[in-house]
Structures are given as structure tokens and as C-alpha cells.
Amino acid sequence: MDCHVYGNNCCGIELQDGKASGVTMTNNNVHDNGDNGIGIVGMQGPGENVVSGNTLVNNGRFGMEIKNPNGSGAATGAGRVVIENNNVSRTLPIVDARDIVGIAVFRRGVLAGNVDVPYGAVVQNNTISGYVQTSTSEGFGIVAEGINHTVSGNNVSGCDVGIQRQSGHTPYPGDGDQNDLADTYFGRGNSPVTCGVTVTGNTLSNTIDTRDVPAIAGSGLVTNLNTSNTYCTIQAAVNAATAGDVLEAGNGTYNERVVIDKSLTLQGASESGTILDGTGLVGTGKGITINNGITNVTIKKLTVQDYAGASGKC
């Protein structure tokens, strides 16, 4: 904390342990470094992890890289991963043609002990400005990919894209292609799924303020109430469940058809808010199919849209 870091060819402050817990990085002045201002790999519990009050100016392609976090998803308490009250800006043009970003929570360089999908970070009350690109790539204020993040209360201005949720960039399972590509991805990240990412209460003034890539990124989160494990699709939760488990699908639209092959309970958070929509998908089949011989299945508080365009509530 309270450091002045500048003029390095690569990085300002870099933590590459990959399994760090109880990380505190506060009140540092980090500027004019070649690649990033702050880079951290794999923050996780049981300690509290806080990156706050830092000023980062004109640091290469990245203000702050939060790679492969495994947080609690909460803003307080044990296991939290919180990035808050930082001031991140670019006031000079970038000479690198690739994507640039102020703060990114993403999958990159997964090490032993890291989660494969970033989980549970909170990015709140930061000020980010000036991330613009003149190539076919883009400048982003905040990028979040993975599961159960919160992006709230940030002030993002003067960027090509203010806040982006994304999933599915290729290749995978290695690292994403971060070359100067004419696509809409932040190329350095490649989480295979993104869901339960809440974006709320931000002040935005950018060419594009918010964007989901693909359009369904950030949809509902499915929780196994017996194990507390979370999933981005209902089918993934069903496949991982054991007989007797209770699965709760949070509010959102799930673009899938579901096959249930074991005794369990599938419930939505609310009948009108949890929507299973199989329309437009290749092939045929009902919204929910219960395999022959499977008993003791309970389905409730869902709206189901099948391939034929019919809908019903249960």
C-alpha cells in the first residue's frame, strides 16, 4: 500500500501466486507502465481480498487485470474479492492495436488451484475513463465474465464500451485470442460461460454504455440448494445433481430445452421471472422432458416455452 510505481516495461504491481488469499492493495499511485497497472491471478478465500483507493493512469493496455478470481460474491466478509474506489484512466492515445480495458475480471492463464470460470467478484464505486481504440479492436471501461459478479456504482466515461459482459470467446480451454480482431469480444478473456452477473447503478457516458456478448450473456443463475453449487444452465445443474436435490433457477431467460433423468425438484425464483425458452433451437422436443421411469419429480414456479411456440406455467 501507499506505493508510487511507474516506468516499468511490463507491469506496475503484479501478484502471480495464483492461490492468494487475504490480499490488500490500497492507495497506490501506479502510472506509465508498459502492460498493466495492477495484475492479480487467482484471489480467493478464506481471507478478505480488497483492491481499493488506487490511482492508475496510462498503464499500457490494462489498468487492472483480475484473473481467475474465486470470491464469495459478497461485498463484505470472509472470502470476498472486492475492487472498489479506484480511479483508472487513460489520457494518452494507445499505440498497441489490440483491445484495452480499465478494469477486467476474466479468465486467463489458469494455473493449478485456479477456478476455470471466474467467480464471485464485486467491482464497485470505481471511476474509469478514456479507454478508446483507433484500430478494429476496442477500448472497454469494465469487462466481466464468469459467474456471480456484481458491477455497481461505477462511473465510466469516454470509452468505446462502458461495461461488457461476455462469454464464449475462442480458443478454449487454452487462452483467448487477443490479437487485433474485428469482433466484439475483449480478446484476452475466454470464460466458456457467464451468468448471474449483476450490472446496476452505474453512471455511464460512452459510445456504447453496456453490451452483452453474446446477447444472452449474464442470464440467470441456477443454484443447487443442497450443495450450494451454481450453474449457468438448468441442464448443467440437472446433469450434476443427485437424486433428491432441489435446483432453483434465478430470474432470467434460459434458452434451452431440459431433459430430467433423476428424481429432483426444479423450481424458479418466480413464475413470471424464471423463463425456460426453447423456441428457435435446432431440433425438436418439449421445453422439459422427463425420461421414462423417472418418478418423484417436482417442477414449480416456471414459465416454459416449447419449440412449437406454446407456453405454460407450472
Unreliable stretches (pLDDT < 50, length at least 5) are none
Radius of gyration from the CA trace? 21 Å
Number of strands: 31
- Can you tell me the overall shape? elongated
Class per helix and strand makeup: mainly beta
User: Could you give the distance between the termini?
Assistant: 54 Å
Which sheet architecture does the biggest sheet show?
Answer: 7 strands, parallel
Q: Which strand-content bin applies to the residues?
A: 35-45%
Q: In which range does the helix fraction lie?
A: under 10%
Strand order of the largest sheet: 1-4-7-10-13-16-19
Return the domain count: 2
Q: Provide the residue-averaged pLDDT.
A: 93
- Treating each run of at least 4 consecutive H or I residues as one helix, how many helices? 1
Short descriptors:
314 residues; mainly beta; 2 domains; 7-stranded parallel sheet; 31 strands; 2% helix
Describe it.
The chain has a 7-stranded parallel sheet with strand order 1-4-7-10-13-16-19, with no helix packed on it. A 7-stranded parallel sheet has the order 2-5-8-11-14-17-20, with no helix packed on it. A 6-stranded parallel sheet has the order 3-6-9-12-15-18, with no helix packed on it. The chain is an all-beta fold. The protein has 2 domains: 210 residues; 92 residues, no CATH class. 2% of the residues lie in helices and 38% in strands. The longest helix is centred in the last third of the chain and has 7 residues. It is built from 1 helix and 31 strands.
